[in-house]
Write a structure and sequence with these properties.
Blueprint lengths: L1 E6 L5 H10 L3 E9 L3 E9 L2 E9 L4 E3 L8 H12 L2 E3 L23 H6 L5
Parallel strand pairs: 1-4, 5-6
Antiparallel strand pairs: 2-3, 3-4
Amino acid sequence: MNQKIIEIEKIDLLNKALDMKNAGYRLAQACAVKKDGVYLLYSFVKGDDLTTLRFKTEEGDLVESVSWLYSYAFIYENEIKELFGVNIVNMNLDFNGNFYETKIKRAFNPVDESSAERGDTDG
C-alpha cells in the first residue's frame, strides 16, 4: 500500500477533495485529532493508494463540508462537529448537535468554562 499525507490549507479542502473524486478516489474516512488545536484528516483510497489531506483548524473557523462530493461524508462530519466542536458548514445532512448523546458537549475537545469566561477558548 502506498500511503501519503498531504498538508493543505483549510480553504483548499473542497478543491483537493474534488481533485481526488475526479481522479477516481473514494473517501475512506474523515476524522479529527486534538493537538495544539484540532487537525482534520480526510483519507482517500484508490487501488493501493491511500492519500490523506490534513489541515489545522482554529476555534471559530468555518470548514466547508465535502458531503456534496461524497454524500456519506455527513456521518464523519457530524461526528467531528459534535465531538470536537469544529464548525463544519453546508453538510447535506446536519444533525445540529443531535448525532450523539453525550454528557459533555464537545467530548473530545471540551471548553473549560472558566477559560471561556476569560475569553480563552483554547482551554
